[in-house]
Amino acid sequence: MKTDTLFTKPISKQFEFDADVAAVFDDMLVRSVPFYKESQALTRRFTLNALAEGGIVYDLGCSTASLLLEIERAAGKNSGVRLIGIDNSPAMITHAHKKLEAYGSSIELYEGDILQFPYEKAQVIISNYTLQFIRPMVRDTLVRTIAETLNEGGSFIFSEKVVSEDPKLNKELIDCYYEFKKVQGYSEYEIVQKREALENVLIPYTMNENIQMAKNNGFKTCEVLFRWANFATFIAIK
Predict the structure, then answer these.
(1) How far, in Å, CA of 217 to CA of 219, rounded?
(2) How far apart are CA 141 and CA 81, in angstroms?
(3) CA-derived radius of gyration, the chain
(4) E strands present in 53-175
(5) What is the model's pLDDT at position 180?
(6) Cα gap 8→110, rounded to integer Å
(7) Does the pLDDT value for residue 100 go beyond 50?
(8) Does domain 16-163+202-237 have CATH number 3.40.50.280?
(9) Which long-range contacts (CB under 8 A, 24 or more apart) does 195-201 make?
(10) Which of 15, 44, 132, 221 could be joined to 197 by an S-S link, Cβ 3.0–4.6 Å?
(11) What's the CA gap between 142 and 115, in Å, rounded?
């Protein structure tokens, strides 16, 4: 796994999921998202719970397909589960294909737009830190499409960076997060550089806004599975 050193140099553009990011993305996730492995383990567990009788799983913004591979290993190749990853980054899909080939995986990968993809009926849809990169004006439309794609009782499991409704608390949450990143080996310079690169690219909602968005667009319930400061994992049931 290649180490993330992308922001040790001055940024020249806004953040995008290009070849440079794809090459270090696995390391970036583990070092940039608090308790990433734990939240993914929860996602895997609740995905498997929903797949007792098989079905289709979509991972929207699947990046290098690490989570889908974990689900495939846990479910077993004869489980009747069909795993599908979608990402609009050619570089991410290229890296994912290399992983799948190495593991002899039967996961399906598609380079495409999750807003326009021709979905089949599914039992679980996963979205890890993807909605926050979708423009707010179309975010509700995507969540509505997700609800319509799911079978009755199906699960939408999504993780997001969240903001606080209280400005003072929000600053404290951000400070807490920056301390976490420093412990992971990122310098103050790298932290500032990445923050500037993500400006107006990553647009987070509050925890309550995420829950209400799910309920407004076809889900009967939405709860928080996991939260650490300004990072949260949600489950919504149709």
Answers:
(1) 6
(2) 27
(3) 17
(4) 55-60, 81-87, 108-111, 122-128, 150-163
(5) 84
(6) 32
(7) yes
(8) no
(9) 196/11, 197/7, 197/11, 197/13, 197/14, 197/15, 198/14, 198/15, 199/14, 200/14, 201/14, 201/15, 201/16, 201/133
(10) 15
(11) 6
Residue 219 CB neighbours (<10 A): 23
The token pair that represents 73 in the structure block? 């290993």
For 27-56, write each residue's pLDDT tens digit: 666 677 889 899 999 999 999 999 977 899
Indicate if the pLDDT at residue 117 is higher than 90: yes
> CB–CB of 58/122 below 8 Å?
yes
Tokens of 232: 């949260």
65 against 181, higher pLDDT: 65
Contact 149, 116 (CB under 8 A): no
Q: What is the end-to-end Cα distance of the chain in Å, rounded?
A: 37
Burial class (CB in 10 A: 0-12, 13-18, 19+), 39: buried
Global confidence as pTM: 0.87
Contact 226, 234 (CB under 8 A): no
What SS3 state is found at 8? helix
Helix and strand element counts for the chain (H, E): 8, 8
Secondary structure E strands in 30-121: 55-60, 81-87, 108-111
